[in-house]
Structures are given as C-alpha cells and as structure tokens.
Write a structure and sequence with these properties.
Elements lengths: L1 H25 L1 H29 L2 H7 L1 H17 L1 H6 L1 H28 L5 H20 L5 H50 L1
C-alpha cells in the first residue's frame, strides 16, 4: 500500500509539472500572477488563523509561540501579494530564478530516485538518472540565464518542466511493466514447482 501511494504521489507530481509547464507556455504572465494571488490568499488565511489562535491560547503559552507577530507578518505578506501582484511581475526575471530553483530541487529528488533504484538493482535506474541529469542541466541554464529574450527564457522554463515530468512518467510506466512481468514469472515458477511436486 505504501509503495502504491509513493508511485501515485510521483504520478501526481509529474502531472502537476506538465500542467504548470503548459500554462507557463500559454500565458506566463497570467499564470504567474494567478500563483502569486493564490499564495497571497493562503498567507492571509494562515495569518488570520495565527492571530485567532493567539487570542484563544493561554497568555503565557501565547507569548512563547509569538503567534500574533507571525500572524501579522503573514497577513502583511498576503496583502502585498494580492494587491501588489504587478510588483512581482515587474521583477519578472527574478521569478524565473524561483522556477529554476524548483526545477533544481526536483532534479535533486530525481538523483535520489535514481540512486535508490540503482541500489535496489532496478533495470530502469539509468532512465531516472537521465531524468535527473536533464533536470539539473535545464535548471543550470535557467539560473545562469544565457538568454537575451525574457520570452524565450520563460518558454525554456515551461519546456523544462514538461520534459522532466514526461521522463519521470516514462520511468514509472517501465517500472510498472517490469513489476507485472516479474509477478507473471514468479507465478509461472510457483506453478512449475507445484507440478514437479505432484509428479514426484
């Protein structure tokens, strides 16, 4: 069950990366503005909850947790995100760095995945390693930004997300096929042993 949940989580992550990549490809400004506003709304909710919790907590305990100042900080950041979204979009090149860091982190996760597969002697470890290498290389390009055009950079970010996710999905498909084949082979071996015992 735990293994199935892990695979399902990876599939969901891949699908999310593909969707984000496509949305960035279609409308990088609009999509990024939407993400900033959603982040702002979440910060506002988190801040409101912290402030509410502060006044509901025992004064001595509340003083230790610093819930009021945390809540006010979250609310301030949330309001800034919601009402000053344009400021983030003006610093557009900086946002590509954030996407680059995200791709870098997913690349490092893929390194872990590839090494885990190698240690468990899975045949497809090299595909996961290719995915990790591609992600790290693409993240490097984005972070060093050798592009003269911002539009091209955003397209490169979008395509990078899609490529990484597609490679991961291919790895998962091959792993699933091998697992099914191994189960079939194990079943055949068990049946053969059973038949041999009957013959004896």
């Amino acid at each position: 069950m735990k293994k199935w949940t892990s695979v399902f989580g990876k599939v969901i992550m891949c699908i999310c990366e593909i969707v984000v990549g496509i949305l960035l490809l279609l409308d990088p400004l609009g999509f990024t503005a939407g993400i900033i506003k959603v982040a702002g709304a979440l910060l506002l909710l988190s801040g409101a909850y912290s402030v509410f919790r502060y006044f509901r907590t025992d004064p001595v305990e509340a003083q230790k947790e610093q819930g009021l100042v945390n809540g006010l900080c979250y609310i301030s950041c949330g309001l800034f995100c919601v009402f000053y979204t344009q400021w983030f979009l003006t610093t557009f090149p900086l946002l590509t760095v954030i996407y680059g860091v995200i791709i870098l982190l997913t690349g490092l996760m893929r390194v872990q995945w590839a090494v885990d597969m190698l240690r468990m002697k899975k045949e497809q470890w090299y595909m996961a390693a290719i995915g990790a290498f591609v992600s790290l290389a693409l993240a490097g390009f984005i972070l060093f930004n050798p592009f003269s055009s911002t539009v091209f950079l955003w397209r490169f970010v979008a395509v990078s997300l899609i490529i990484g996710a597609v490679i991961d999905l291919l790895v998962l498909v091959f792993i699933n096929q091998n697992l099914k084949q191994n189960k079939v082979n194990d079943k055949i071996d068990i049946e053969k042993i059973s038949m041999d015992k009957i013959d004896e």
